[in-house]
Design brief:
292 residues; alpha/beta; eight-stranded mixed β-sheet; 11 helices; 40% helix
């Protein structure tokens, strides 16, 4: 085989190798020390550079803010006179502007559309956040909107919406008529394990993370998992999209969510990965059809 045909794996960044070494040395001295450093990384999203199309996505929206604990949450509204309200919830290290294509499709179908920047994301305040804090922000925005007809949630946003969960339409019975999940993680523990594997964290540090969640939330990490609690979410109709080639959340987790959630409609996709699924025309068309 010639050199030009040999497939090689790109070298790991030097900064990542240094971070792993630092955490390994910290863990050798103190599990608690390494846990503190790992937890800061786990709860600190990067604020990614703005893409060219993001400003256009928000150009026709009205921006407003909602308080949520220590955070000020930025939110955006399109088509305020739309017949029903659809709330869009982004994932980890995303923001409301990532929903541009979905928002446009829903507005064209006549809906009032609202999207938020989660805590420590986009224009919202804060530098760190957790799944429960993210859910509280969704709750605060939802409570400010009145009746919410549908939620479309991606990845971490799906886990926060359903796993915590957020309670919608409490004044009128507490049911959400329509729910759409995109690329949702099935297991909270599996997310933590992937994080730990990426940073080569010792088992003792991972176990400490689990105990910390139990101490802070009064429930174990896996109790937030959609494969356990999704079936209890009060949605009139629920639909899950997940791509076979999702590079962030294994397709098998979507299969487990579907297997443990009677009545959930499961639509696998091919070739969209973790993020393009949010803006695919066919997916948007199916979302509009479900809401109709």
């Amino acid at each position: 085989m010639t050199k030009g045909l040999v497939q090689t794996t790109p070298p790991e960044p030097a900064a990542l190798k240094l971070l792993r070494l630092k955490l390994r040395l910290q863990a050798a001295v103190s599990t608690e020390w390494a846990f503190g450093a790992a937890w800061r990384i786990f709860t600190t999203p990067r604020r990614l550079p703005e893409k060219l199309w993001e400003a256009a996505a928000l150009a026709g929206a009205r921006r407003f803010t909602v308080p949520s604990g220590p955070y000020t949450i930025a939110a955006y509204e399109w088509n305020p006179t739309g017949r029903r309200t659809v709330l869009l919830v982004h994932g980890w290290e995303h923001r409301a502007s990532f929903w541009g294509a979905m928002a446009a499709g829903l507005v064209a179908a006549g809906y009032r559309v609202v999207a938020l920047d989660g805590p420590a994301h986009g224009a919202s305040s804060g530098s760190r956040t957790t799944l429960p804090a993210f859910a509280r922000a969704i709750q605060a925005v939802a409570d400010s909107l009145g009746e919410v007809y549908a939620v479309v949630a991606h990845s971490f946003g799906a886990a926060a919406t359903v796993g915590v969960p957020v309670q919608f339409n409490q004044a009128t019975g507490g049911q959400l008529p329509r729910l759409v999940l995109l690329a949702a993680p099935g297991s909270t523990t599996a997310v933590a394990q992937r994080f730990a594997a990426f940073l080569h964290l010792p088992n003792a540090v991972v176990a400490r993370m689990g105990r910390y969640i139990q101490e802070q939330q009064g429930r174990d990490a896996e109790s937030f998992s959609l494969m356990q609690v999704g079936c209890h979410f009060p949605a009139g109709r629920a639909l899950l999209f997940h791509d076979h080639a999702d590079e962030s959340i294994p397709f098998a987790e979507a299969e487990e969510i579907a297997a443990n959630w009677p009545g959930l409609m499961f639509h696998p996709t091919t070739g969209l990965g973790h993020n393009r699924i949010m803006r695919d025309d066919a997916v948007i068309g199916e979302v509009v059809a479900l809401l109709g």
